[in-house]
Each structure stands twice: as structure tokens, then as C-alpha cells.
Amino acid sequence: MSTHGGRRGPVLELKTIPADGIPHAFERAERYRLLNDPEQAESICRDILAVEPEHQEALRMLVLSLTDQLGPGGHVAGGVREIRAICERLVDPYDRAYYTGIVLERDARAFLRRQGAVRSTAYEGFRSAMDWYERAEDLRPGTVDPRLRWNSCVRTILHEHLEPEGREAELPLE
User: Fold this and answer.
1) How many Å apart are CA 46 and CA 22, to the nearest integer?
2) For residue 127, which of 96, 110, 143, 149 has the smallest C-alpha distance?
3) Which domain holds residue 125?
4) Does any domain span residue 80?
5) Are residues 59 and 123 in the same domain?
6) Which of 39-53, 74-88, 98-112 has the lowest mean pLDDT?
7) Are 51 and 60 in contact (CB under 8 A)?
8) Same-domain status, 99 and 154
9) Do residue 106 and residue 145 come from a single domain?
10) Which residues pair with residue 4 across a beta bridge?
């Protein structure tokens, strides 16, 4: 066996954070996310959830950190299904609706950036996100955030000239 630093093999066990360290850890997760390091924020949220599995702030931050990682390849450990399952763990129905909308919207944006993406699929993704934002707004009337996200989806649909399936303009044959 190989040795590293005087030890036999690498020690690859996760260390549990103490429960009283959760507030500090959450502050770190917020900071890393703001520093555009969503992988580190994700890791910290998972450390928090290992101690307190239903920590609502960590669940919300985990959703945001994972969707921050959606790119043209759309590869996130566990994928969009895992992120949506995390949304289901949110206790507040408003949060479940709002964050599900965010997942769908960010997935649609990532899909739109993919080479050869079927644009009607992106349109449907944005429309699904908008449906969830409407649910969130119905659950908490007067809340601005769902409207802001709704408007962002509408602007993207208009700017990108997205259409539902069957309504896309046909290209002339040459």
C-alpha cells in the first residue's frame, strides 16, 4: 500500500460538523455562492443537512447552488430530478412552488444554451416555470419575487423568439 503523509492510504471519510456550527457554516455557504463558487456552497449545505436533514435555509441554498451549476451540458450530480426532490422537502408551500419555478426556469435557460437545442422545449420549460411562479403568487399574494421571475421568463421568450411546438417558423428549403 502507498503511504501519504506518514499514513497508509488517504483517509476519505466526511467529517460531521457540530450542530452549534450550523449558523457559521450557513454564512460560509452564502458567501461562497455570492463568490460564484456554487460547488463549495453545495458541499457546505450538504454538511449542514447531514446534521439537520430538514434545515429549510440549507435546502433552499442547496437548490440555488445546484441550479447555479446547470450549464449548457446541464450536468449536476443527481440532475434536475434530485433538485426537484429537494424542493419537495421544503415545508412552506410557497417555497416549494417558488423554488420549483426557479429549477424549471434555470433548466430552461441551460437547455437554451445547448448546441442544437429544440427551442420549443425551452419555451415549454419557461412556461412550466411561469405556472409555478403563478402558484407561488397565489399562495402569497402581493409577493414581488414570483412576478420578477415571471417577467424574466417572458422577456427571455420574447427576446429569443421562442414558440411552442408546432408554431416555430419553418426554414426555407434551398
Assistant:
1) 11
2) 149
3) 90-164
4) no
5) no
6) 74-88
7) no
8) yes
9) yes
10) 7
Could you read off the pLDDT of 7-35 as tens digits, one per residue? 677 789 999 999 999 999 999 999 999 99
Reduced to 3 states (helix: H, G, I; strand: E, B; else coil), residue 3 is strand
- Per the document, the length of the chain is 174
Span 148-159, average pLDDT: 98
Q: How far is CA 130 from the centre of its chain?
A: 15
How many Å apart are CA 91 and CA 58, to the nearest integer? 13
The reply to whether 171 falls in a domain is no
Cα–Cα distance measured from residue 109 to residue 103, given in angstroms and rounded to the nearest whole number = 10
Say if residue 155 is in the same domain as residue 101: yes
Picking from 5, 10, 14, the residue whose alpha carbon sits closest to that of residue 43 is 14
Q: Look up the pTM and report it.
A: 0.86
Query: 60 and 102 in one domain?
Result: no
Residues 110 and 58 occupy one common structural domain: no
Count how many domains the chain has. 2
Q: How far apart are CA 111 and CA 96, in angstroms?
A: 22
Contacts by 87-94 with C-beta closer than 8 Å and gap 24+? 87/63, 89/54, 89/59, 90/56, 90/59, 90/60, 91/54, 91/56, 92/56, 93/139, 94/136, 94/139, 94/140, 94/143
